User: Fold these one by one.
Assistant:
Number 1:
Amino acid sequence: MWERHEIETFLMLAGDLHFGRTAARLRLTTSRVSQTIKKLERRIGAPLFERTSRQVRLTPLGRQLADGLGPIVAELANAIRDAAEAARGITGTLGVGYSTPWAGELLTRAAGAFHARHPDCAVYVQEVQPGDPFGGLRAGDLDVQIGHFPVDEADITRGPVVFSEPRALVVPRTHPLAERASVSLEDLAEVPLVTLAGATPGYSLDYHYPRRTPGGKPIPRGPGAVYWNQVLSYVATGRGVTFAAARAVHHHGRSDIVFVPFTDAPAIDYGLLWPTARETARTRAFVKTVLDVRWGYLTGFAGRL
C-alpha cells in the first residue's frame, strides 16, 4: 500500500518532470524525492521515470499510473472537502452570472430561495457580457452561470439545460423581411449577419451564426460586437441582421427593429455552467435550487405573455 505522501510525490514529479522543482514545492530535499521514487519503482517492479543528465521523462508505465491516479486523488480531495463543508453547512459567498435578462430573473429568484435554505451563504448575481462568456468563471468572479449551449471547454462543466427558447431574426424595421409573419434560414442567403466579437469560441459562433443556409447558400458575415446593445444598433442602422431568442423582444424591443420568428431554426438551449476545478457542495446546492424553482418561473413568465 502506498502512503499518501508517496502518491503526492509521484504525481507532482509526473507534472514537474524536475526533481529539484518537486523537492522545493514539497519542502523536501532532492535526494528524499529520489529515494521515494526509487522505493515506488521497486514496489512496482519497473521504472516509472527515465532519468538523464538533461531531462526527466515518464515511462509509458509511469504515464499510465499517473493517468490512473490523478482522477482518484482528485475525487478523494473532493470527498474530504465536501465532508468538511457538510460539517459546517453551506456558508461563504457564491457568485452567479447571466447573459440574458430572463436568465437573470431566474437566477434572482433562485438566489432568494437558496438564501432561505442556506442563510449563512450570500449570493451575488451579476451580468455576463456576451463577448466574454467564460471570463468570470475563469477569473474566479463567478461560481455558476447560465449560458447558452453548446459549450465545449475543457475546464468548464456543462450542467443541465434549464430552458430552451425559440429563435427570431432581428431586422431593421425598413427591411423587406420585417413585413413577414415568419422567416426561414434560407431567407438569410446573401444577407449580412451581425455576430458577436471578443472571446466567444469559434464553435459557438458557427452554431449560433451559421455561415451557410441548410441549402448550402452562403450567409455573409457582417460586423461583430461585444455588447448586445451594440449588436442591435448595427441592425437598426442597416449593417445586417442577427439571431436572438424570440423572448428577447420583451426586453430589447425598439421602434427601429423587428423580431421575426423562425420556422426552422433550432431552439437555443440555456444551461448551467461552472468551473470544474472549483466545484463544491455550495455549487451543487445552488444548481439544485435553480432546477427546483425554474418551472415556477417559466410558468409565471408564460402567463405574462
Number 2:
Amino acid sequence: MNLEPFLIRALVASVVLGIVAAPLGCLVVWRRMSYFGSTVAHAGLLGVALGIVLEMDLTLGVIVVAVGIGAALVALGRQRVLPVDSLLGILSHAALAAGLVAAAKLAGQRIDLMGYLFGDILAVTAADLYWLFVGGAIVGAIIAGLWQTLIATTVHEELARAEGMSTRRAEAALVIVLAVTIAIAMKIVGVLLIIAFLIMPAAAARPFSRTPEQMVLLAAIIGAAGAAGGLLLSVATDIPGGPAIVLLLAAGCLAALGGSVARGQGR
C-alpha cells in the first residue's frame, strides 16, 4: 500500500513525539506537575501570536513565551501570598485568554485556532519535522545529562541538595524541556491536549514498572503506539487527530488501571 507523503510525515511525527515525550511525561507524573505544564501549554497560543507579530518562526515564538512563563512560575512559586495551585489556576487561564485575544486582534492574519487548540497532525510539514527532531534531540540530551539529579530531586529535594546536587539547575532544566516539548507538540496534539498526551503514557506504564528507566521505556512504547494508532483511527473515521490520539491513550490508561486493580485483588 502506497502512503501519501502527508501521511508518512504525520506517522513519523506522531511516533517520534511519543518517544520524546515519555521521559518528560514520567517526570511530570512523579513530580505532580500536570497543572504547571498546563499553564505553560496555555501560554503557547500567546507565543503563536508573538511569532506572527515579530515575523519569526511560530515554533520559536512558542518556545520563547513558554520558557518565559515557566521561569515566571518558578519564581512566583516561592511566594507565600497565594497557594501554588491557585496561582497556577489564575495564570493558566489568563495566559490562554491573552493568547486568544492576541490572536483575534491580529488584523489581516489568518490563524487556525482549532488547529492550535486541538492539533492538526495531518498538516505536519517538513519544517515541523525538523523542529521535532532538533527539539527532541535537545530534550533527550538535557534529560540524559541530568537524569540522576532529576530522579534524586524528585525523590527527596532536600536530601539531593545536601548531597551537593543542583536542584535549581534541575528545576530550570525541567522548565526548558517542558517548553520545548510543548512547542514541538502543539502542531500535533494542540495546546489543550498536550499535557494529556504527556501524562497518559506514563500513567499507563506506572503499574507495570519497577524502576524509573523501565517506566520511561514502557511509556515511550505506549506513547508511540498510541500516537500512531490515533493517527490511523483519525484517517479511518475522519475525526480530528489530536483528540483521537488522546482518546486512544485514555483507553490504554483505563485498561492499565483496571488490570492493576484486578491483579491486586487477585493476590
Number 3:
Amino acid sequence: MERPVHHFSELFEQLGLRSDAESIEHFIQRHSPLPKEMPLAEAPCWNEGQADFLREAVEDDADWAEVVDHLDASMHKRA
C-alpha cells in the first residue's frame, strides 16, 4: 500500500500554523537557520505538541516523514 503524499502546506496545517505560501516562507525565514547540530524538533519555535509530532514523524517513519525532512532541510539551510 502506498503512503499518502503530504504537501508542505498540509504539514503547517497539522502543526496548527498558517499554511499559505507567504506565511510558510515568513516562518522559515524568521526561525532559520537552525544550528547544524540542532534537531528540528528541538528548535525553540515549537510548542511541546508540535515538537512531539515532528519527532515522532521521523522516528516512526510515518506518512509525514518526507515532508518533515524537507522542513528540516529548509530550516537548516543558510540564506
